[in-house]
Queue: 3 jobs
Job 1
Amino acid sequence: MTQDSISRRRLLGTAGAAGAAGLIAGGAGAVAADRVSRDTDSTALTSIGTTSVAFAGEARAHGTPQAGITTANQTHGHLIAFDLAPGTDRKATAALLRRWTEAAREMSDGRAPDQDSSGIALDAGPSSLTVTMGFGRTFFDKVGLKDKLPQALSPLPDFSSDALDRKRSDGDLWLQLGADDGLVAFHALRTLQRLAGDAARTRWYMAGFNRTPGATTEPRTTRNLMGQIDGTNNPKPEEEDFDTRIFVPKGGDDSSPEWMAGGSYAVVRRIRMLLDSWDNLSLAQQERVIGRRKSDGAPLSGGTETTPVDLNKFAADGSIAIRGDAHVRVAAPESNQGAAMLRRPFSYHDGFSDDGTPDAGLLFIAWQADPMKGFVPVQRKLDRGDGLSRFLRHEASGLFAVPAAAGDGEYVGQRLLEG
Ligand SMILES: C=CC1=C(C)c2cc3[nH]c(cc4nc(cc5[nH]c(cc1n2)c(C)c5CCC(=O)O)C(CCC(=O)O)=C4C)c(C)c3C=C
Ligand SMILES: [Fe+2]
């Protein structure tokens, strides 16, 4: 598995003039509206808008993962979960997934879906838009597919640091949207939310962000709102065991059925950072909590950001370089019988609480072939002995089965609903 292939194309309109039009006029039963045409003879100011990530097609045939998992983190993220409306049966659900798939395909390619004349994304190219679709545990019973419920979707255990808001957790269906332009991302969100029509209702919604490409002099691992470089020791697509750790094998396995082959499980946690307490620590204290230097992300055992962490290294004064409760020690695969996940988060900031503290943190999204061999054992360990957990509060949680990309003419999840 290599990182998502990215192609560059001319601005929206050149890519698909026929689709570049029309105001979305009401979800499932949309009414055609005026089409909008515009001059496309312009030169892009940067390559950000012109970059597209394949939703399907040759680069993403059936059996390959959906976009938005190994795709480079985008600047703008939207997470939205839906519950099926009472009376939405399997047929109506399939129709919804087909509407979403077709619209996502068009928009990822820089074209506006039919009947969209909202104009929101009119001047922009695809801007690396990705749309990723998943199914929650509650979905299966509602559409009469209980026998297809993967064991891997068993509820996550409770953790002592949880302060979960159940209304902002779980959900029958989940969409993750990412793009490097705020209007493109909002346009996709608005389009898909309206296309839900009467079939599904929004259960919860969260918005997040990352660094803008080009904000740094060279491409860098992103920083989180505590200021740390975050993402360094993620599994890498070029590693031999990457696919087996992150994606369900062909044919399924003990915890996943065949329809999930090539797919992955997303654990979503809204993790609030207690930033006022964190900011009271000195720089040296903050670095000891993580086990890495803040400035460049180098491990406290020495080297640069990419130097492997040496958990057995002692400093000159005889103290252990990376403390027993340092986050990188407690979370490392070596401390968790090899358990690993691909972390692909967005930061969030939703204003300030009455006491003036920021409602800010991480929309933590972890991808793995089996949550019992990824998130769960690591979070169990963090819950017991992580120095960072004193500065975090897990406020919402979800677990979603994200099947492989849709093949030509297919919709996402077709093999689940019709297989
Ligand atoms: C259950 C898994 C994890 C949660 C929850 C989690 C929350 C969390 N982490 C940071 C900041 C950093 N995490 C870093 C590394 C790291 N974190 C996890 C897992 C969870 N983190 C793993 C598996 C690792 C890699 C460990 C290793 O093998 O070295 C780092 C260091 C840089 C890096 O490797 O990415 C930082 C910084 C925050 C702020 C946070 C919750 C808000
Ligand atoms: Fe972490």
Job 2
Amino acid sequence: MVTEIAKAKLNLALHVRARRPDGYHELETLFAFVADGDVVQVEPSEADSFTITGPFGALLSGEGDNLVTRAASAFRERFGGGAHAITLDKRLPVASGIGGGSADAAATLRALGVLHGVAVDEMFDIADRLGSDVPACLFGRSAIGRGRGEQLEPVAGLPGMPVLLVNPGVGVSTAEVFRRWDGVDRGPLPVDPRAGRNDLEPPARAIAPVIDDVLEALAASQGAGLVRMSGSGATCFALFEDVASRDAAVEALAGRGWWMLASYLT
Ligand SMILES: C[C@](O)(CO)[C@H](O)COP(=O)(O)OP(=O)(O)OC[C@H]1O[C@@H](n2ccc(N)nc2=O)[C@H](O)[C@@H]1O
Ligand SMILES: Nc1ncnc2c1ncn2[C@@H]1O[C@H](COP(=O)(O)OP(=O)(O)OP(=O)(O)O)[C@@H](O)[C@H]1O
């Protein structure tokens, strides 16, 4: 049995530069990863099986299609390896801008790679076909993403930096948020992510105005540095100078009914 953590993905900055003829958008984004996330367990088995558990599992159990089983099928088509019993412990909110499905797909590929002796480097083309965020999640370390997000350049991260993720419980469709982007190129990613933006914040806030409340609450938290929405939302994050101020923010925000994950960057 191989266990892999599907770490939550953050876009510390996300600049949308252009809409492409194929419907996707040219991005420049700074990816970072959080120590916690979903948990994927894979073991060889007589027959394929897929079980979903965890606080957000019920949302996905009804869907026939899952990025985990799609990743496993793509792996088998390319590298073989037979049948597997796979369990997904779904701890991250669904459709929330922190790449849950993408991280699950990447974790599945990593686990299958361990079981069958396939190096991560050999799986990037499969990852690319599964979704724009899957290559970054397979890489799993801080990187600048360009193109659809699949062209990755490793950068030094902020390992150990305390972070708080807050999701107000509203699922936001990535495709819908990109559709509402106003088409204005506001310029490239700066060297310092604090000077950057998430260009998907305005269209996501138009769909889910509660994002404003989350951003405001995080910005008002003592010790919060960079505060921003991740991906296409609605999850927002704050980086904290120390664990005590992060944990104080958790206490201050408890009772709002928002999902929170107090963790640190890897
Ligand atoms: C917003 C981000 O999370 C930032 O990291 C990603 O760009 C989205 O990654 P993802 O969820 O893996 O996205 P995909 O599954 O590839 O695409 C979902 C939908 O988002 C839109 N999409 C996605 C990525 C991109 N660069 N441009 C887009 O316009 C497309 O309408 C696409 O149909
Ligand atoms: N394992 C999975 N976990 C979550 N969603 C999945 C999974 N497999 C398929 N999906 C589908 O993908 C959709 C998007 O979910 P996901 O949580 O990956 O979005 P996201 O957090 O916005 O990701 P991103 O930041 O990459 O845009 C869901 O609404 C769901 O229908």
Job 3
Amino acid sequence: MEKIISIKNLTYTYPDSKTPAINDLSLDIYKNEWLSIVGKNGSGKSTLTKLIDGLIEADSGTIVIDGEVINEENIWDARTKIGIIFQNPDHQFVGATVEDDVAFGLENQGMPREQMVKEIDRALDLVKMSDFKTRDPQSLSGGQKQRVAIAGVLATKPQIVIMDESTSMLDPDGRKKVLDLVQKLRQEQDLTIISITHDIEETELSQRIVVINDGKIVQAGTPSSIYDIGPHLTKFGLEEPFSSQLVQTLRNSVKLPEGYLNEEELKEQLWKLHSSM
Ligand SMILES: Nc1ncnc2c1ncn2[C@@H]1O[C@H](COP(=O)(O)OP(=O)(O)OP(=O)(O)O)[C@@H](O)[C@H]1O
């Protein structure tokens, strides 16, 4: 597997703080993977994002993006490879219409008008929002707003998309739709997804989870292996996933296979039990 980001011994302490927000953290992220970074409030997730995107500079350690050690000279080039989708889409809208909004990142790149129109259409088509081109972004639902925000990011053709609590303001249905879309785009557009969240439920579609606490990685593994530590997640200020809690409770009365079961697997097991009764 090819690395797209390689972080080594990264440490950062805010100027007015005594304890490091990121503390000797090392992490490799691979091309086309979906990595979830989870941790409670204040664990260091946003600081790590800011370091990766070059908004702040580490006190020590290195970040390699797409083969280049990041420094003051090449950070702007590295940033063009990264797109960030934030928690509250209202804070990212700058245009009066959906298409103006998607155009924003492209205008910043100085793209000629004709090519820009094509790119906007392509990006809106990818997120199935072409019919909303002339709408005021503020008039859209939360899920639609996030799809437009994703289009804005995709239009600039990043290799890496960082989702910073991007679905935390959506209802369960809106959240599922956005996460399914991200999964599809990851596969079709060969993107690397880094999703940052304090909500473990949001990580099911990712391939790997790292749990951070006090600026350090305290657990890493596949979603099943992380969900499997169930109640121990509370040690890091995280809630045990609902399906994992349910499985623990059901195990007291029915026989279920070992290990973590996701919702689909649990449904299947319960059907089997039901039909054998
Ligand atoms: N501008 C700042 N100045 C000083 N300390 C800061 C600043 N921003 C964050 N911190 C501290 O750094 C640590 C990590 O914060 P960070 O915002 O990275 O956490 P987080 O995991 O993103 O939290 P949340 O989920 O609440 O967004 C915390 O102890 C926080 O208080």
